[in-house]
Amino acid sequence: MTIVERLVPDGLWELFHRVVPVAPVRPKGGGRRRYGDREVLAAVLFVATSGCTWRQTPEVFGPSWSTVYRRFTEWSQARVWAKLHRLVLDEPGARGDLDWSRCAIDSVNMRALKKGT
Q1: What is the mean pLDDT of the chain?
Q2: Does residue 73 belong to any structural domain of this protein?
Q3: Are the C-beta atoms of 4 and 61 separated by less than 8 Å?
Q4: Superkingdom of the source (predicted)?
Protein backbone atom coordinates (compact mmCIF):
# COMPACT_ATOMS: atom_id res chain seq x y z
CA MET A 1 0.00 0.00 0.00
CA THR A 2 1.42 3.36 -1.01
CA ILE A 3 1.40 6.48 1.13
CA VAL A 4 -1.30 7.92 -1.13
CA GLU A 5 -3.53 4.88 -0.59
CA ARG A 6 -2.94 5.05 3.18
CA LEU A 7 -3.81 8.75 3.43
CA VAL A 8 -6.69 8.55 0.94
CA PRO A 9 -8.34 5.14 1.35
CA ASP A 10 -10.80 3.99 -1.30
CA GLY A 11 -13.83 4.99 0.80
CA LEU A 12 -12.63 8.56 1.22
CA TRP A 13 -11.58 8.74 -2.43
CA GLU A 14 -15.05 7.66 -3.60
CA LEU A 15 -16.68 10.39 -1.50
CA PHE A 16 -14.15 13.04 -2.53
CA HIS A 17 -14.51 12.13 -6.19
CA ARG A 18 -18.23 12.95 -5.94
CA VAL A 19 -17.65 16.54 -4.79
CA VAL A 20 -14.47 17.64 -6.54
CA PRO A 21 -15.01 19.85 -9.62
CA VAL A 22 -14.15 18.45 -13.03
CA ALA A 23 -10.67 19.48 -14.14
CA PRO A 24 -10.59 22.05 -16.94
CA VAL A 25 -9.62 20.71 -20.36
CA ARG A 26 -6.49 22.27 -21.79
CA PRO A 27 -6.13 23.23 -25.42
CA LYS A 28 -4.14 20.76 -27.50
CA GLY A 29 -0.45 20.75 -26.74
CA GLY A 30 -0.76 22.92 -23.63
CA GLY A 31 1.48 22.42 -20.62
CA ARG A 32 2.46 19.45 -18.50
CA ARG A 33 0.23 16.55 -17.59
CA ARG A 34 -2.06 17.27 -14.68
CA TYR A 35 -1.33 15.36 -11.49
CA GLY A 36 -4.15 13.18 -10.26
CA ASP A 37 -6.51 14.55 -7.65
CA ARG A 38 -5.87 11.58 -5.35
CA GLU A 39 -2.13 12.34 -5.12
CA VAL A 40 -2.82 16.01 -4.50
CA LEU A 41 -5.47 15.22 -1.88
CA ALA A 42 -3.01 12.94 -0.08
CA ALA A 43 -0.43 15.75 -0.06
CA VAL A 44 -3.03 18.23 1.27
CA LEU A 45 -3.97 15.81 4.05
CA PHE A 46 -0.29 15.30 4.87
CA VAL A 47 0.29 19.05 5.20
CA ALA A 48 -2.88 19.49 7.28
CA THR A 49 -2.06 16.68 9.69
CA SER A 50 1.72 17.00 9.96
CA GLY A 51 1.94 20.73 10.55
CA CYS A 52 4.57 21.19 7.85
CA THR A 53 4.45 24.14 5.48
CA TRP A 54 3.36 23.86 1.85
CA ARG A 55 7.00 24.20 0.78
CA GLN A 56 7.90 21.17 2.91
CA THR A 57 5.52 18.85 1.05
CA PRO A 58 7.51 15.64 0.45
CA GLU A 59 8.35 14.79 -3.15
CA VAL A 60 7.00 11.26 -2.62
CA PHE A 61 3.50 12.56 -3.46
CA GLY A 62 4.55 13.59 -6.97
CA PRO A 63 3.22 17.12 -7.50
CA SER A 64 5.24 20.11 -6.40
CA TRP A 65 4.27 22.06 -3.30
CA SER A 66 2.96 24.89 -5.48
CA THR A 67 0.66 22.51 -7.37
CA VAL A 68 -0.64 21.10 -4.08
CA TYR A 69 -1.24 24.60 -2.70
CA ARG A 70 -2.87 25.84 -5.92
CA ARG A 71 -5.24 22.85 -6.06
CA PHE A 72 -6.05 23.28 -2.33
CA THR A 73 -6.95 26.91 -3.03
CA GLU A 74 -9.10 25.96 -6.05
CA TRP A 75 -10.92 23.31 -4.01
CA SER A 76 -11.41 25.72 -1.12
CA GLN A 77 -12.95 28.32 -3.41
CA ALA A 78 -15.23 25.62 -4.85
CA ARG A 79 -16.28 24.73 -1.27
CA VAL A 80 -15.16 21.13 -1.74
CA TRP A 81 -14.33 20.74 1.95
CA ALA A 82 -17.80 21.82 3.08
CA LYS A 83 -19.44 19.57 0.46
CA LEU A 84 -17.30 16.62 1.55
CA HIS A 85 -18.16 17.25 5.19
CA ARG A 86 -21.87 17.37 4.38
CA LEU A 87 -21.61 14.21 2.31
CA VAL A 88 -19.88 12.36 5.15
CA LEU A 89 -22.58 13.47 7.56
CA ASP A 90 -25.43 12.55 5.21
CA GLU A 91 -24.08 9.35 3.64
CA PRO A 92 -25.28 6.26 5.51
CA GLY A 93 -22.31 4.41 6.95
CA ALA A 94 -19.66 6.83 5.62
CA ARG A 95 -18.40 7.85 9.05
CA GLY A 96 -18.08 4.26 10.20
CA ASP A 97 -16.27 3.04 7.09
CA LEU A 98 -13.49 5.62 7.14
CA ASP A 99 -10.62 5.84 9.60
CA TRP A 100 -10.61 9.52 10.53
CA SER A 101 -7.81 9.18 13.10
CA ARG A 102 -5.18 10.05 10.48
CA CYS A 103 -7.10 13.16 9.46
CA ALA A 104 -7.42 14.70 12.91
CA ILE A 105 -5.94 18.12 13.42
CA ASP A 106 -5.35 19.22 16.99
CA SER A 107 -4.05 22.39 18.59
CA VAL A 108 -0.47 21.13 18.42
CA ASN A 109 -0.57 21.50 14.62
CA MET A 110 -2.15 24.95 14.54
CA ARG A 111 -0.03 28.09 14.71
CA ALA A 112 -1.08 30.73 17.19
CA LEU A 113 -1.15 34.35 16.11
CA LYS A 114 1.14 36.73 17.96
CA LYS A 115 -0.24 40.11 19.02
CA GLY A 116 -3.21 39.83 16.67
CA THR A 117 -1.13 39.44 13.50
Answers
A1: 82
A2: yes
A3: yes
A4: Bacteria
